[in-house]
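[step 3/7] fold_predict: job queued, chain A
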Amino acid sequence: MERSSTLPGIAQALSLMETGALRARDLAEHCLARLQARNAEVHAFCAYDAQRIRRQADDVDAGVRRGLLAGIPFAAKDVIHSADYPTTYGSPIYAGYQTGRDAACIALAREQGGVMMGKVVTSEFATQTPGPTRNPLNLAHTPGGSSSGSAAAVADGMALVAWGTQTTGSITRPAIYCGVVGYKPSFGLVSTAGIGLLSPLQDTVGILARDVSDAAATVLGIHGRRFRPAAADRRYRLAVCLSSQWRHASAQAIAALDDWVARLGRAGFTVSQRTLTAGHEGLIEDQGRLVAYDARQALAHERLTDKARLSPRLTERMRGGEAIDLPTYLAMQQRAAAGRARAEELFEDIDALVYLATDGEAEAGHNNSGSPRYGALWTLLHLPTIALPVTRGSGGLPLGVQLIGRYGQDEALLQIAERAAMCGGRDQ
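[step 4/7] structure written:
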């Protein structure tokens, strides 16, 4: 999505507010106006309060609230607890449910002066049954899931950034479908305190943003750190990672990746190709089975006390978890731990991997939200990933790629992604 002059990026907005050329109230009003004009069609937000938004912005302008995100409008997925708004997990079971506390990511963003715009729609318990959100680029298509409202709100200018979560591909896929950047940090970089967890050893809090620098500014900002781009003379080595999952991708998704990689090569990147190791290949199937087992455990209360209000799709998924016994589950967790210990093998002589992000463009209709498969392995391995839209497909909707980095080397991956986004260009 092209950035308009009326809605600056985070770095520019902070600079303008510092000089007095822009008020936090003006920025909040811009996003609020867009929200009020479009939410009835897009259904990105499930809860917001205009007066509460304005009070936060006015406090920034008065100097009451300061920080690295002062005045920046953000939203939060509806599995993330909020003191000000209900947290429904996208389920009728929790309609109107108020936790009375902010999750860590919200509290830290507010501590840094961020202006919370409200809660955005999630798929049911961050799984596969979609909520009401539409793709703002084409309302007849899915926005992806489960961070559907997060991606749609950012893509449509209702917030500069939005917190999301990923268990398999719930940040990666909606980012590409809606034409924004999806950053899934290294596991644990953003605290999961106050999150409705589905798979505790996989669930990761991340961010949807309009570009890499905004994503970096938000996640690093809650840690009190500023994002610094790479030195101009830095050269990067990438490797396209081939795996069995490529057989699922459309020809145009693969062509978009190949074309983008070729552009990077012409811009000075060194790009090679490698095949996923057999040991890591085996973890792809394990990932989905682990989620099924974990979901049955995490939602035991709802399953036992209010099963009728769980979707048939979620019920069936949990039934798959019932078929897995404890020794099998523990064996899968052991294989996952071994895979994480061997993850450095994937980065021999390179700085980052390039991988597919989606099968293709966002699907038509709203009953399904597309396959999360391309995030499965990287989420299980706890590695940081950044999804970048790079072009549009034959149907006019975005196609994209993923960059994957070493565990804990998030700032390095963000620098690579920012450089790649600039050098690879975006035909959007």
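[step 5/7] annotate
The first helix runs from residue 10 to 19.
The longest strand covers residues 385-392.
exit 0
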